Amino acid sequence: MFNTGNTAFMLVATSLVMLMTPGLAFFYGGLVSRKNVLTIMMQSFVSMGWTTILWVTVGFTMCFGKDVGGIIGNGKYLFLHGITTHTAFASNASIPMLVFVAYQMMFAIITPALITGAFADRVRFKAYMIFLTVWLLFVYFPLVHMVWGGGIFQQWGVLDFAGGIVVHASAGFAALASVFFVGKRNVKNTKPHSIPLVALGTALLWFGWYGFNAGSELRVDSITSIAFLNTDVAASFAAITWLILAIIFEKKPKILGMLTGAVAGLATVTPAAGYVTVQSSMLIGVIASLICYIAVAYKNSRGWDDALDVWGVHGVGGFIGILLLGFFGSLAVNSKGANGLFLGGSMFFVKEFVAVVITAIYAFLFTYVALWLINKITPVKVTKEEEMEGLDKLEFEEEAYFEEG
């Protein structure tokens, strides 16, 4: 008999995570120029449809089927075969397996969408659809299995509460590779066309992140509550830290900076949310903003055209979040966790470090090679003339804004 409370909570958490992808669409949509709003939003929304198809056909079984070589799951659940309304989730029999399928599907939807902010304004939709497919099949699905599905990282004892490795580090370093392959924009938009849209997107992301992190406990208990609180605390400390940095270095408080800081804090606390104290999450929020702010400044100094700072916020945030879990993890908080370096867990820290480095390198290399191969099939980047015209008209013959008369 399923627990109605746990099941209801997980359905709400699943809905919250689903809301994050439209939130990302608004966040990115506000940051790009007026003539590319629909393109960047489409890249998020199309993932909701296409990733769902991949997930229910082959993705779920690749992630959570029986382990094959520590890398991937077997075909046990192809097309969700054998999963009925009565099938319980193996690791938590109080919820139906179908709820777990839906919850994890929402993670799969948003992860590749994160990458799109890096190559905003200059990648063709056809090439993106091919990239979305192969990246899920060869990067995201294997990583989920390795970390959460019984694969090699999980066997090592690597922990990642809600996706520092699986979601943010993988997407962030894939984003960096895409920047190097696609190159700089010919028409560089230096100002967001709508900060209110960015604020709306941030609000939806922040709201949805409670389902992202607290829901990763997969039940309602004390860990759910601390993961929920840690999520908000880290985001808040990070937002205010970034605001202070803007005042110091840019001489003015910046709402865009504060919003960016909040997202950096959310990404960084994600892998640690259910394994660290609230006091540690305060430090995580501050450190997240400090390091991500430096990463964005370094990116700018190098001339890397990561249009919407995906690497500097999600890649670096996810990477250091895993390391901070390796520092601050506490068995006193979660008996299923581990003690970090500050509590004598030196080997745990090493495992976290090795896992996130391997993830970053693999995601970077695969993405670069995949884009190179896709470019042999169909051009990845638009021409200078097409970029100047804008991708919304080029790809969809639609406009986000138009004047009557």
Summarize the structure.
With 405 residues, the protein is mainly alpha-helical.
Description:
- The protein is mostly helical and 405 residues long.
- The longest helix is centred in the last third of the chain and has 32 residues, at 346-377.
- The model has no long low-confidence stretch (mean pLDDT 96).
- The radius of gyration is 20 Å and the shape is globular.
- Strand 1 (67-68) and strand 2 (72-73) form a beta hairpin.
- A two-stranded antiparallel ribbon has the order 1-2. A two-stranded antiparallel ribbon has the order 3-4.
- The protein has helices at residues 4-31, 37-64, 97-115, 125-148, 152-156, 164-182, 195-214, 222-250, 255-269, 278-302, 310-328, 346-377, 384-389, 391-396, and strands at residues 67-68, 72-73, 88-89, 92-96.
- The protein has a single domain, classed as Ammonium transporter AmtB like domains (Ammonium transporter fold).
- The protein has 14 helices and four strands.
Radius of gyration, in angstroms, nearest whole number: 20 Å
CATH superfamily: Ammonium transporter AmtB like domains
| Alpha-beta classification | mainly alpha
Helix count equals 14
Which word captures the global form? globular
Q: Any idea of the CATH class?
A: Mainly Alpha
For the largest beta-sheet, the strand count, sense and barrel status come to:
2 strands, antiparallel
Estimate the helix proportion, in percent. 55-70%
Q: Any idea what the CATH architecture is?
A: Orthogonal Bundle
Please state roughly what percent of the residues sit in beta strands, choosing from under 5%, 5-15%, 15-25%, 25-35%, 35-45% or over 45%.
Answer: under 5%
CATH topology: Ammonium transporter fold
The helix/strand series, from N terminus to C terminus, equals HHEEEEHHHHHHHHHHHH
Record field, number of beta strands: 4
- How many domain modules? 1
Could you state the oligomeric state of the chains shown?
single chain
Strand order of the largest sheet: 1-2
